[in-house]
Amino acid sequence: MKPKLAYLGIYAAIAIILGYVESLVPVFPGIPGIKLGLANLAVLYILKKYSFREAALVSLVRILVIGFLFGSLSGILYSLAGAAFSLLVMTLLLSHTSLSLVTVSVCGGVAHNVAQMVIAWLLLRSTAFFYYLPALLVSGVVTGILIGLLTQEISKRLP
Amino acid sequence: MKKKDYLVIGTLLLLALLSWLLLQNRGKDYGGIRITVDSRIFGEYSLAEDQIIPIGDTNVCEIRDGRAFMTEATCPDHLCIHQKSIGSAGGAIICLPNRVIIESVPVSGQEGPQIDAFVS
Nearest-CA neighbor of A107 among A44, A49, A57, A53? Predict the structure, then answer.
């Protein structure tokens, strides 16, 4: 087995654990449902270290494992939409611009939140979801900065 | 972090502020709520009247002192119960797993669920 595959397995496991850990940490007390996006830590690190393919693989494995173990089919759909759009935005920004990792992470966080809102709107056809837009944008920025800084520091310290 | 980074983050925060301003009601008085289940209107209710509204067999909405809350839900995360109550300023409470949406409507609605048939 190639060492890279083994590493990706470890990263997928870390991403799954981080997804559980974040459910224990409330981000903004008072606004329920906003998550830290700790799993994005692993995805962003892999995206920086390897490429889009590896990051997409780990992200997909995480979502499917978490989704089938603890979630529902519609939950998987929301997660996939958020993760796919976020990863796409981050990949394009990393390869085509000179933006810092923190800004890339911020755009990924916002993309994730907006994609999930759009999916909810498409599924339920209600404009009520737009009430959440300001909170989703701000939380995407705040959690994105945090995850970006953490990934930057971890990247410096890991071989 | 360079100038370009601050510009991108600043733009996103500006968008948040703009969307927040757009969502503020300007003198509009939301006197009622509309409950939607699975994209179908379940009923419209006035905020003026205190009442407890069972929504199907999954959720329960309560109107008390001019504000609407979700008090019960069968979903695992109970995010809808923890959401901020909605009053005359407008807003929405959404239970995504059960596809239940409570949103403000400007007019005070009729009482009772407006449904064709009730299957229990």
Answer: A44
CB of B49 less than 8 A from some CB of A: no
Nearest CA-CA partner of B106 in B12, B46, B29: B29
- Residue A75: CATH number of its domain: 1.10.1760.20
| Cβ contacts of A68 within 8 Å, gap of 6 or more | A76
| CATH fold for domain B27-105 | mini-chromosome maintenance (MCM) complex, domain 2 (2.60.320)
Contact A126 B101 (CB under 8 A): yes
Type of residue numbered B68: A
Task: Say if the ipTM goes beyond 0.90.
Answer: no
Long-range contacts of A67-70 (CB under 8 A, 24+ apart): none
Give pLDDT, residue B109. Answer: 44
Q: What is the pLDDT of residues A111-150, one digit of tens each?
A: 999 999 999 999 888 888 888 899 999 999 999 999 999 9
B75 near A CB under 8 A: no
Expressed as residue numbers, the domain containing A48 is 3-157
Answer whether B3 touches A (CB < 8 Å). Answer: no
Q: What is the pLDDT of residues A72-110, one digit of tens each?
A: 888 899 999 999 999 999 999 999 999 999 999 999 999
**Residue that the structure tokens 């958020």 belong to:** A82
Distance from the A13 Cα atom to the nearest Cα atom in chain B, whole angstroms: 23
- Has residue B108 got a pLDDT over 50? no
- Look at chain A and report how many structural domains it folds into: 1
Per-residue burial over A111-140, b if 16 or more Cβ lie within 10 Å, else e, is bbbbbbbebbeebbebebbebbbbbbbbbb
